[in-house]
Amino acid sequence: MSKIRLLQEPNKSFIVFKETNPFSRWHHHPEYELVLITKGKGRRMVGDHIDRFKDNDLVLLGPYAPHEWMCDAEYFEPNGHFLGEGVVIQFLPDFLGDKFFEVPENIPLNAILNESARAIEILGDSKEKIIEIMHGIIDSEGNDRLYQLFSIFKILSSLKEFHILASTAFINQFKPDENTPMQKAMQYIMQNFQHQIYLNDLLEITNMSYSSFYVLFKNTYRMTFKEYLLNIRVGYACKLLTGTLQNISETAYLCGFENISNFNRQFKHLKGITPSEFHKQVHEKRSALYL
Fold this sequence. Notes:
Strand content: 15-25%
Helix content: 40-55%
CATH architecture of the largest domain: Sandwich
Shape: globular
CATH topology of the largest domain: Jelly Rolls
Oligomer: single chain
């Protein structure tokens, strides 16, 4: 896994960056990061969480939380031009001193920053306010830029509508300074779950025997590799079916299942209902909210 770092200007204490190049692949870094996708849609992966994203996706990431935003093919033109855009704010935990986030007045903010180790999708009115500030901070300089960041901190300190993304189990097992076999395996799984993944591929990547890999994976993630991969695929299917995608066959394909019958069988095994029943229930509940 790569440790991609943005360049920090010597006269600035934190980073504000407008991204117009293809978004970085699966990576991590020691900074907190606030990511706003201003133009783009596709697949977002944070830790062991996979979801779809679109314009105005806003996520706060803690230090070393592994992540990747991958835009759909329509955002890559044949001539190599990338159509996606984003705004990124990065700051190190001690950029304002060792104790700034630990003072009594910052207890609520520090709590949110601690939660961001698992990544936080920001929602509601707070999201709209932060997006407005982030659009303005791009063209700001000097102390104006710093005070705009403080305005974001103030909003985060009273954040009410948000969604925590990665599981506790994943973050607890993730050690940023070690390129362990399980990190290599997880990176490969998260980037390739939509395609056929063979156990031999993982044994080669991790340079482990079958028995060693089986035991270590199960001890680390409390399930076998096949069970974990199935949970990732079905979880992603639920995200797609909760959204606007209604074609069950297309959903199966996008989640890495080779045929619709296997998709239906595995989905029902984990969720207790078929994908069609799941989709119907979700949209019936959603419609009832507007009656």
